[in-house]
Design a protein that fits this description.
- By secondary structure, the chain is α/β, with parallel strands linked by helices.
- The mean pLDDT is about 95.
- Helix 7 packs parallel to helix 9.
- The termini are far apart.
- Strands 1-2-3-4-5-6-7-8-9 form a 9-stranded mixed beta sheet. A 3-stranded antiparallel beta sheet has the order 10-11-12, with no helix packed on it.
- It binds iron/sulfur cluster.
- The site of iron/sulfur cluster (SF4) has 11 residues, from loops.
């Protein structure tokens, strides 16, 4: 198997499953079937359980339950919004910056986020790297000493079996010039049972490794999810966060504050807050950069520096990620979080 199929069969994976679970009204089936044919659907039992079925705008449902709006592509949206393809020298590798590389061993995820920036690529039918392709990807990294960091992404690398994940990490461990391995995942919260002793053993590596957890709402932090994160941290693997700023999910300062506090309480350092990308059919999730900056400015006044993520934009077309948070310097004056200006003497 090698792609965590056993765990993923627990997920609700199509419109019929969602209807049976009471997450979608039966009379919406015909409206959503075309969405299901175009984009992958999955929600784990843990996340389905969290959905408040009485709330039409429930922030958990909004992340995972499809809507008809996804079939509507607006101007500027494109299949590869952050330009992975232009920087992909071979299958499963994205090499955008000299010192780091993205390695995508699988296109499968335990949940399929309705706003996903790789939504045209991810899915259960997406191609995983076979043994030869993985060997070729590792050889590419091994042949380039400037590469110091490997980011396992996808898809979600923690849907791989522990055995397969261990094999990939073992391959990376043989490359002396790679110092850091980062694993980008939603698994610890959306499918916490996968973070068992075997998975923890697979993750143990002599390289500096970080698990970067994707979550967008404080309610995703269930007791089981927090315990899964604690297992990773107790194994000596630091955790960082990444979230997407999303209309109707976390686009108010109280929701963002609760999310960032939930990360910190789980011993996860807030790292990235992504401005939403121009993925097809995701207009309903996007807000303007000005709105995003206003929210981030309010966070500065409400949370300690430890809780502040970097607000970033992936420039469309593959030009990389840049910080887009509000600026506080005004010529020789600096602006405090309340908007008051102070003279500075340097
Ligand atoms: S888990 Fe990540 S890659 Fe998978 S659908 Fe969600 S955002 Fe996309």
């Amino acid at each position: 198997m090698g792609t965590g199929d056993a765990a993923m069969t627990r997920s609700l994976r199509n419109v019929d499953d969602l209807v049976v679970a009471g997450l979608v009204a039966p009379d919406r089936r015909s409206e959503l079937d075309p969405v299901g044919r175009r984009y992958a659907i999955a929600i784990t039992p843990e996340m389905a359980e969290l959905v408040d079925r009485r709330d039409d705008n429930d922030p958990i449902a909004r992340q995972f339950i499809p809507t008809r709006a996804e079939l509507h592509t607006t101007p500027g949206e494109c299949a590869d919004p952050i330009g992975d393809a232009a920087h992909s020298p071979l299958k499963g590798v994205v090499h955008r910056y000299p010192d780091r590389v993205l390695l995508k061993p699988t296109h499968a995820c335990p949940v399929y986020c309705r706003f996903c920036f790789r939504r045209e690529m991810v899915g259960p039918g997406g191609e995983a790297l076979d043994a030869d392709e993985l060997t070729a990807a590792l050889a590419y990294i091994a042949a380039r000493p400037p590469i110091r960091e490997v980011i396992l992404s996808g898809g979600d690398p923690l849907v791989l079996s522990p055995r397969r994940l261990r094999a990939i990490l073992a391959g990376i461990e043989e490359i002396d010039h790679v110092d850091v391995v980062r694993i980008h995942t939603r698994v610890p919260l959306v499918d916490p049972g996968r973070i068992d002793a075997e998975m923890i053993a697979a993750l143990a590596t002599p390289k500096a490794s970080f698990v970067v957890l994707h979550a967008n709402h404080a309610r995703e932090f269930t007791p089981a999810g927090r315990e899964a994160c604690a297992r990773i941290v107790r194994a000596g693997i630091p955790m960082l966060s990444q979230s997407v700023l999303l209309r109707g999910i976390n686009d108010d300062v109280a929701a963002l504050e609760a999310l960032l506090r939930a990360f910190l309480a789980a011993r996860i350092k807030p790292y990235y807050l992504h401005h939403p990308d121009m993925a097809p059919g995701t207009a309903g999730f996007r807000l303007s950069i000005e709105e995003g900056q206003a929210l981030v400015r309010q966070l500065r006044g409400r949370l300690s520096g430890l809780a502040q993520p970097l607000y970033v934009l992936d420039i469309p077309g593959g030009h990389g990620k840049v910080p887009i948070g509000p600026g506080y310097l005004r010529e020789k004056r600096v602006e405090d979080p309340a908007g008051e200006l102070h003279e500075i003497d340097r």
